């Protein structure tokens, strides 16, 4: 009995143990299968991420190459732009130098022509021939103005004109302008009024004078009746300068194009004394260089107003005194000994004729050594030297003046004449304490 019970008990134990073992193995199997499945999922995700990373890397590499190519093209474009800008600046400066050299070469024969016309006019006895000589001189004046204007535009475009801003009394400039334009206004029976203000302004006096000179010249030229008013007044910290005329006026269409080079409006087409169409272009460029502003109001048939706005000043910088131009009298020049050094034969001959008409004794030559014998025969120091700046063999008129002063004293008076309008030449002449006379020279007028 006990044995049967033991066997039954052992058999039950084995079956229960086996079931537990099977159940345990099933759980272990389920866990393992779950881990295997999760491992497979993770491997699948990792592979997917790996594929995504490879794709992104390819896209980044492609975009990087595209960006690098764009940057290289942009760099090349910038280099090309810089090179083009430098080339344009070099071309502009070359144009300025060319015009400066060309203007010097053109002014030389023009100077000789004007001197010759002056001598020819003095030799004529009839009014008709004098008037004809005057017309020729007027044509030469037009050519001179054109050359100077083209040179000025070139300098302004090249940025080589540097305004010398200073404080000065505006009335000093207005006085010069009134004296210059009053004869023209009176010849046309126009009223020219200048209203002075006593204001001190900040500007370059020479450039400001040229701006107002162009504006007043146009106003007088295109006004047939009435008059021209130049007035200045203070407005806050600014000075307003108005040039008002009662001329033909300017249409709306012309207001948009009037500052272009060589533009001549409807009024110019009807005028016998129309300008070159460059004055207002010069005005606009000069005003911009000075930092001023210019406004225009006009009504066809009623007239125009040009308003220039600039800064006022509190203290004035003294300007060099402007001596009134004196008419040359034969009694003043009679017997004066003049040393004339000029390497252009036409200018030399014309100047000798002019000085002879002024009753001067002229010691002339293309080089200083050519007048040595004349100086020795003179028996006394000459009264003045008139020398061209650019001489042969690289020499200058300043060199000739130094040689004359070594011989006749440091106070020996000298005038250097030149068609070279560069600041370097002006500075060299000023440093030598000589007077500067720019070509084409204008012969002084005689007092009968």
UniProtKB/TrEMBL annotation:
It holds the Pfam family HATPase_c. The modification 4-aspartylphosphate is found at residue 388. This is histidine kinase. The keyword Kinase applies. CDD domains: HATPase, HisKA, REC. Keywords: Kinase, Phosphoprotein, Transferase, Two-component regulatory system. It comes from the Bacteria. The lineage of its organism: Bacteria, Pseudomonadati, Pseudomonadota, Alphaproteobacteria, Hyphomicrobiales. Residues 101-314 form the Histidine kinase domain. GO terms for molecular function: phosphorelay sensor kinase activity. The keyword Kinase applies. It comes from Methyloceanibacter caenitepidi. It catalyses: ATP + protein L-histidine = ADP + protein N-phospho-L-histidine. Residues 337-448 form the Response regulatory domain.
């Amino acid at each position: 009995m006990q044995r049967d019970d033991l066997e039954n008990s052992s058999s039950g134990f084995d079956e229960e143990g086996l079931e537990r073992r099977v159940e345990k193995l099933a759980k272990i199997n389920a866990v393992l299968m779950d881990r295997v499945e999760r491992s497979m999922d993770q491997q699948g995700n990792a592979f997917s991420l790996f594929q995504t990373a490879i794709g992104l890397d390819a896209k980044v590499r492609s975009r990087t190459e595209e960006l690098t190519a764009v940057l290289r093209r942009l760099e090349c474009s910038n280099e090309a732009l810089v090179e083009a800008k430098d080339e344009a600046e070099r071309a502009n400066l070359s144009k300025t130098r060319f015009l400066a050299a060309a203007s010097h070469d053109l002014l030389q024969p023009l100077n000789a022509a004007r001197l010759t016309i002056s001598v020819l006019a003095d030799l004529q006895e009839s009014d008709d021939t004098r008037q004809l000589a005057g017309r020729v001189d007027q044509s030469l004046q037009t050519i001179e103005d054109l050359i100077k204007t083209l040179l000025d535009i070139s300098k302004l475009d090249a940025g080589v004109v540097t305004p010398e801003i200073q404080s000065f009394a505006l009335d000093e400039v207005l006085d010069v302008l009134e004296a210059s334009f009053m004869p023209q206004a009176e010849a046309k029976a126009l009223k020219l009024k200048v209203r002075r203000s006593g204001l001190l302004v900040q500007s370059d006096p020479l450039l400001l004078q040229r701006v107002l000179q162009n504006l007043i010249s146009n106003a007088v030229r295109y006004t047939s009746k009435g008059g021209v008013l130049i007035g200045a007044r203070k407005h806050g910290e600014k000075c307003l300068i108005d040039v008002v005329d009662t001329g033909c006026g300017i249409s709306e269409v012309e207001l948009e194009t009037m500052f272009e080079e060589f533009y001549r409006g409807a009024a110019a087409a009807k005028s016998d004394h129309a300008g070159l169409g460059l004055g207002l272009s010069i005005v606009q460029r000069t005003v911009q260089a000075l930092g001023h502003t210019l406004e225009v109001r006009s009504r066809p048939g009623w007239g125009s107003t040009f308003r220039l706005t600039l800064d006022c000043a509190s203290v004035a910088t003294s300007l060099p005194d402007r001596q009134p131009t004196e008419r040359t009298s034969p009694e003043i020049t009679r017997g004066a000994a003049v040393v004339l050094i000029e390497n252009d034969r036409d200018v030399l001959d014309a100047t000798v004729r002019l000085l002879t008409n002024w009753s001067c004794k002229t010691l002339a030559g293309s080089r200083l050594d050519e007048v040595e014998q004349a100086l020795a025969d003179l028996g006394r120091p000459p009264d003045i030297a008139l020398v061209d700046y650019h001489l042969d063999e690289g020499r200058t008129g300043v060199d000739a003046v130094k040689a004359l002063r070594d011989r006749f004293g440091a106070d020996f008076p000298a005038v250097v004449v030149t068609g070279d309008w560069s600041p370097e030449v002006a500075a060299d002449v000023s440093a030598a304490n000589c007077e500067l006379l720019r070509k084409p020279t204008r012969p002084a007028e005689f007092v009968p």
